[in-house]
Amino acid sequence: MKFPRGFASDNNSGAHPQILAAIAAANEGHVRAYGDDAFTSGALNKIQALFRGPSEVFFVFNGTGANVLALSAMTEPHHAVLCTENAHIHVDECGAPERFTGCKLVTTPTTDGKLTPTLCDRLYRGVGDQHHVQPRVVAVSQSTELGTLYSPAELKALADWAHKRDMFLYVDGARIANAAAALGVSLQQMLEGSGVDAFSFGGTKNGILFGEAVVFLNPELAAGFRFRRKQGMQLGSKMRFLSCQFEALLTNDLWLENARHANAMAKLLEKEMSGIPGVRITQKVEANGVFAEIPREATAKLQAKSFFYVWNETTNEVRWLTSWDTTPEDIQAFAAEARKILN
Amino acid sequence: MKFPRGFASDNNSGAHPQILAAIAAANEGHVRAYGDDAFTSGALNKIQALFRGPSEVFFVFNGTGANVLALSAMTEPHHAVLCTENAHIHVDECGAPERFTGCKLVTTPTTDGKLTPTLCDRLYRGVGDQHHVQPRVVAVSQSTELGTLYSPAELKALADWAHKRDMFLYVDGARIANAAAALGVSLQQMLEGSGVDAFSFGGTKNGILFGEAVVFLNPELAAGFRFRRKQGMQLGSKMRFLSCQFEALLTNDLWLENARHANAMAKLLEKEMSGIPGVRITQKVEANGVFAEIPREATAKLQAKSFFYVWNETTNEVRWLTSWDTTPEDIQAFAAEARKILN
Amino acid sequence: MKFPRGFASDNNSGAHPQILAAIAAANEGHVRAYGDDAFTSGALNKIQALFRGPSEVFFVFNGTGANVLALSAMTEPHHAVLCTENAHIHVDECGAPERFTGCKLVTTPTTDGKLTPTLCDRLYRGVGDQHHVQPRVVAVSQSTELGTLYSPAELKALADWAHKRDMFLYVDGARIANAAAALGVSLQQMLEGSGVDAFSFGGTKNGILFGEAVVFLNPELAAGFRFRRKQGMQLGSKMRFLSCQFEALLTNDLWLENARHANAMAKLLEKEMSGIPGVRITQKVEANGVFAEIPREATAKLQAKSFFYVWNETTNEVRWLTSWDTTPEDIQAFAAEARKILN
Amino acid sequence: MKFPRGFASDNNSGAHPQILAAIAAANEGHVRAYGDDAFTSGALNKIQALFRGPSEVFFVFNGTGANVLALSAMTEPHHAVLCTENAHIHVDECGAPERFTGCKLVTTPTTDGKLTPTLCDRLYRGVGDQHHVQPRVVAVSQSTELGTLYSPAELKALADWAHKRDMFLYVDGARIANAAAALGVSLQQMLEGSGVDAFSFGGTKNGILFGEAVVFLNPELAAGFRFRRKQGMQLGSKMRFLSCQFEALLTNDLWLENARHANAMAKLLEKEMSGIPGVRITQKVEANGVFAEIPREATAKLQAKSFFYVWNETTNEVRWLTSWDTTPEDIQAFAAEARKILN
After folding, report:
1. Which of A165, A192, C316, D6 yields a CA-CA distance of 20 to 30 A from A248?
2. For A166, how many CA atoms within 13 A lie in the half-sphere containing its CB?
3. What's the pTM value of the predicted model, to 2 decimals?
4. What is the pLDDT of residues C131-176, one digit of tens each?
5. By the 8 A CB rule, do A119 and A148 touch?
């Protein structure tokens, strides 16, 4: 294989064959640009049909675009967004949230990548004081950047905490499919049922070429979002090619199938690696990520076989992610290498 | 045909078969995300090889992203960008340039969509006065929003005008391929040879699914652009799927072939339509656009057959665009309809 | 006199003695900073008492701050502000409105510096089209940058036009006192009675050291303005010294007396100058400004005696402003010089 | 006394009589607005004369304006500013730095309000990684928000650390006078000698009505700052009234005299309070601030006599600031109250 599959990121995987087939099928003749087409209305309807109440859905190019534009729809520049210290919006988006919303991100360390009402209490400061940014959004990732999950009850507790304070709950769902697959609940139960106000429905990491959806379960937040998206440089002209991918992803639960497979592979990887001397799994493996401390001297050798990222330089904790196309053979080969290096 | 080809926009067309083939070919195994892959370095090299001097190239999602991020690299927020009154950056990007660069766009009416040094002279105001934004960039579109072209000499005159004033010349090249094909000159001659500082190399309107390149011929302007792109929400994670489309577009001059065909179809459309009573061609047909005044009462009838946009409500001037997939039969059928309605 | 009074700008004048006396009187002991003091509540009350309905008032440092923060309270970044081509917000604030609101200013030429519903109709474009900024605010200056006035009926017509379209009317009142004095109506009649949503109450040009008030007659627009002002760098710490100036200005109608005097001086200046050969008054003299075309060759000579600005280089139209401290003797001396030079 | 002096903030004090005298003296006739006047050039020269090398100086309205505009001159939006967790720019400016520079503030806890190269090392992360903001400025306050001081050697160590990494050192000098007075060194020695790139020269807290100066010791950073200030809504029109205050402040070392007095009063306050049972001084008293833990139940009672702020709710640490007009009698009266309440 020219480009062997590894565990560096689910972004490193390609697209599911059904996605390419959907693009090929959509590639006929002319349709109106910018979303005024049947592919787009079809895909939007499929997402809206996942929920009971009214919702508003918008396709955008990437996860940073989804997060930033959704947050900008929920805030004014003097607001604050509460999140964890290792939230993607805080550490991996090159300051885009601050730049485009004007807001400050107010962060807390966590042990497992998860916010709680108690942690939020500590971040809820300076309310009403004109010198301080005003808390407006609680932002969490589901699954989290550490591969852990919020139960629907945990999300509900956060939504209740937020709503009591006239705040909103936003979910960065770059890996929402992995969460749904792992929890065995519908998006309706997990998100709408918990009172989530808006979330991103990630496609890119789950087997499509590119694309995310911003979903407002609180549809009032969507007022003017069409303009916000265009001004935010996230309106695709040949929208049908983005929409048709989501249409395919939502057909026959491909999104769940892809995620279930990735999650199962993470469990297998955990099993294979946890028995190896010197490897210590550091986080619950609940979705498609495995975090482990490994001997520092082994890192480069194992990376040379199959690249992955060191998550924490201090503790030499590494991150391994599985994806929709990871095979048991990939895992066994990787574990065999690890065993060879570490024994 | 389910989605008949029309003349509303080159954005309404699909992708060339070689583009889909390139995506399918790139869809194997894992490669590093965010552009650290061989597809991307290959495509970047192909673009850089079009020029003699050093250049810096970056792929982004769409034309607005390309224009806005390029302009932001050339300006500080107290600067002004000089452009025509119907520049895409002024009328069709929902204020994204102002929002993200902070700059003011200073505009002038034109008869043919083209800036000239004389027009620029009139826009060059308030220089050195702290109450006024300071002119920094001349921004033109090639081909223009009115389907007209700048000759290399005209671009050079603008570049010279700009450089004399410590300003830059930026070219919105959403249809740069149509310009190159029509002028019969290389991008090197047209742009580098004229002293253009940066331009966008449009892919979307020229037969790919999505994607544009920002090209800095003045490579100093590219300092920090990687961060600007990420913060600007324009960094694709599965970059190989964007890069491979450009790679295919630049192979065997597919980009020129597509553009030549679209241009030829515009000439044919002009020829067919200009003989019809009541139709008056209003702009030189130099690239892939035909602008015409038609009888107001005929507009809706003709649109019902094949949708297109009214460009100027006052004069009932309409815009017809051809694309890489327009056929002579499409044009003859459209002209036949027009004849039927107008006779 | 070390610094002779001229006609370049009402900003060039100093402060009325009663203003300095008010500052001296406020300069005792400690009071809480940032507006939590009796001077500030007193001054705010005095402004609110000018109106019948509820209002919200905030002091800021300068006119640009007032305009920009007020507009930001009325808009989201994808909105447009409609104004005249020579609006202060468009030409004299170095792009601050675009930079901080994100909005585009959409402008029209005028003959007299005044917007009308008919002119607004022409600027009201692209509504509902996601590619276009969405009109949200009509912004006018009262008195205008050309020294002309809107009657209350004209303001009402603009407010009605705006409100019918879910838009707001904002009045840049850097010279609102001159307008009130000239029209002989109360601010209540002129502004609240006409349906104005917000305005700036200018102090600086009317005899104080520095300071403007942002007044929301539509108090819903003031939600969060305290935070907006602080984030907008316009919250003064020793607020009492700003408030006490407004307190003094509103005592015994000093604001109106100052403005009436300036207006009367403009009338006198018009009278004196209009008889001089070669001088052609170009705008109605309705407030404290006189605009005139004068022979180009006389300009520098007259400026050398007493500096003023050329308003329009093409026509050699100049601007003369009077202020609260202009004396008839100042005018006669200036007119005498002009006569000498022009005869 | 109608407004008794307290210890809540040096912002609560009024202006020194010499300042009011300077304003009265400047209040004659007309001078050009926006800084083109002799008062302003005189005051700028007086500040520049404090240093050996070239410098650029600009007056602005307030401390937030000074900090934000100076930082914006040193950064692009994808940069990061390193500072302490309780830096004024981080906690007391309502997110203005993020809003207007686009940058992220990257913060660290400290025990004494001071950054060190070692702490900076920990904040220096993600360099060269396009997903991360790029460190560009080290920002410190002198004296700090905790009343402590950087020695010139400590500042030099930070400047060296920054310059080695192509970064800048910025000093928030809202209380730079207190630092200079306490250290007994000139601003030249403390700042220019240490390699500081830019600082704010605070006037407001040191006995003037309002006003700060932004000083670029690295004059290249000042390119375009005139436009930045205007666009940043910090250009005063009647500039002479701001300049003349600085002129007075710099005459006969009034700025140092005011600061020395405030510092001496802080020492006296420390001495008086530290002997009271239950009072524990928590920070070195090096400038004009005294931080102390006091019994929680005593707080409200003491505040009722003379208001002050609780700095840390958890530990019931309070902040007492002295100012140019604090008298020994003020302190003795306050200490007597405290003794009465606490005994």
Report:
1. A192
2. 6
3. 0.97
4. 999 999 999 999 999 999 999 999 999 999 999 999 999 999 999 9
5. no
B104 reaches D (C-beta below 8 A): no
Tell me the C-alpha to C-alpha distance, in Å, between residue D190 and each of A154, C65, D46, D215: 53, 34, 17, 14
Residue with the two structure tokens 């087939």? A21
Q: Are residues D228 and D283 in the same domain?
A: no
Separation in Å, CA of B20 to nearest CA in chain D: 29
User: For chain D, what is the mean pLDDT?
Assistant: 97
**Residue A211, pLDDT above cutoff 70:** yes
Q: Are A243 and A300 contained in the same domain?
A: no
How far apart, in whole angstroms, are the C-alpha atoms of residue A293 and residue A273?
Answer: 11
Q: Which residues of C touch D23 (CB under 8 A)?
A: 20, 23, 209
Pair B213, B333 in one domain: no
Query: With 0-12 CB in 10 A as exposed, 13-18 as middle and 19+ as buried, what is D296?
Result: exposed
Q: Is B262 within 8 Å of chain A by CB?
A: no
Residue B79: other Cβ atoms inside 10 A: 22
Asked if residue A232 belongs to a domain, the reply is yes
Site of tokens 């109250």: D337
Shared domain for D166 and D213, answered yes or no, is yes
Q: What is the pLDDT of residues A78-99, one digit of tens each?
A: 999 999 999 999 999 999 999 9
Residues 52-81 of D with CB under 8 A from B: 76-78
Whether D65 has a pLDDT exceeding 90, the answer reads yes
Per the structure, the complete domain to which residue D297 belongs is given by 254-342
Question: Can you tell me the mean pLDDT for D152-161?
Answer: 98
Q: Which residues of B touch A6 (CB under 8 A)?
A: 30
Q: Determine contact: C309 vs chain D, CB below 8 A.
A: no
* CA B244/CA B242 separation, integer angstroms: 6
Rounded Cα–Cα distance for residues D49 and D51 (Å)? 5
Rounded to the nearest angstrom, the minimum Cα separation between D103 and chain A is 7
Please report which helix (H) or strand (E) contains residue B64, including its range.
helix B63-74
- Give me D334's structure tokens: 């306050």
Residue C5: inside a domain, yes or no?
Answer: no
Which of D226, D253, D280 marks a domain boundary?
D253
pLDDT digits (tens, 9 = 90+) for D19-45: 999 999 999 999 999 999 999 999 999
Instruction: Please compute the mean of the pLDDT values over residues D55-82 and round it to a whole number.
Output: 98
Q: Which residue of C has its CA nearest to D69?
A: C233
- Please tell me the predicted confidence (pLDDT) of residue D1: 58
Chain B nearest-CA distance from D144, in A, is 31
What count of Cα atoms within 13 Å lies in the side-chain half-sphere of residue A171? Answer: 35
pLDDT of B104 strictly over 80? yes
Q: Share the mean pLDDT of chain C.
A: 97
Is A23 within 8 Å of B20 when comparing Cβ atoms? yes
The answer for residues whose C-beta is within 8 angstroms of residue D138's C-beta and 6 or more apart is D81, D82, D83, D115, D120, D158, D161, D162, D167, D168, D169, D170
Last residue of a domain, one of B253, B287, B306: B253
- Is B10 within the bounds of a domain? no
Tally of domains in chain C: 2
For helices C38-48 and C240-249, what crossing angle results, to 10°?
Answer: 40
